[in-house]
Amino acid sequence: MTNDKKFSANAILALKEALSVIYWKKEHLQDFIKLTLENNAIVATLNWNVTKRESVNELISRMLNRQDIFRDDLMNLFLAVTDFDDFGNLAFWDEDGSKTKKAKEAVNRLRAQTKGYIERTKEQDEARKRKLESDKKILEKKSLNEELSVLKNRFDAIATNTNFQKRGFELEKFLYDLFLLYDLEPKGSFKIFGEQIDGAFTFQSTDYLLEAKWKSQVNAGDLAIFCQKVETKFKTAVGLLITIDGVTPQAISPHFKSIIIMDGFDIVSILEGRISLPDLLFRKRRKAIETGEIYLNIHSL
Q1: Nearest to 244 by CA among 225, 270, 207, 208
Q2: pTM > 0.70: yes or no
Q3: Are 173 and 251 in a shared domain?
């Protein structure tokens, strides 16, 4: 069998023989062929009131005559039969093991006839799959970069807004879209028993409560209030505080163990593609667990 448009005669004969003996019951063979072929309507048009060998001969002959339609399906048959290794269906009718032996020998003959071609075909298929996957990743990366560019323009526009209340609302919407871009299941702002929570999201099966601030550096009191909000919710919840202007030097306390902190530099690093939001979240939380540090510069991670 050569790597051109013509199937070799020996390979065709070996395929017919193997198909005729790998199943004992016709209905099992029919099911196998139907599941293998894309254009499987042909199976119902075959004469199954004759021997399996005759039905198979009719099938292959008709497929060869219309390779414009069935060439890919012929290759599917070759691949399926050369990969065939479960002969258990023959056991009930095979007291002396001869039927199983004959089927195995037929499949092995087909493998011998098609070995080089099948290997090249599978290698080509794998190469095509890798190329498609690479192209897909390139497109996804391009799309992500374009989305991040749009978000960065929004972020820069928000920074110029001197109306602090309006800037806060715009920041919430911006963060919602940023988290949505990374499939982090964001939820908008909500209130619980009078408490204002800026949002929530889920990352690696952990629920996070989100609070965002952009008017001044966050102090110890702000952190304490947010920690209390987080710790009075579900035990496994974690808090993410995003403070664009950072925190005061005296703000961090060893008692704050339920939150991690991002600042404006972190957000800009994400928007400029230097690190992804999920990767930054993972690193910050891991560092907090390992060292107790809830606020570290991205370069320290």
Answers
A1: 270
A2: no
A3: yes
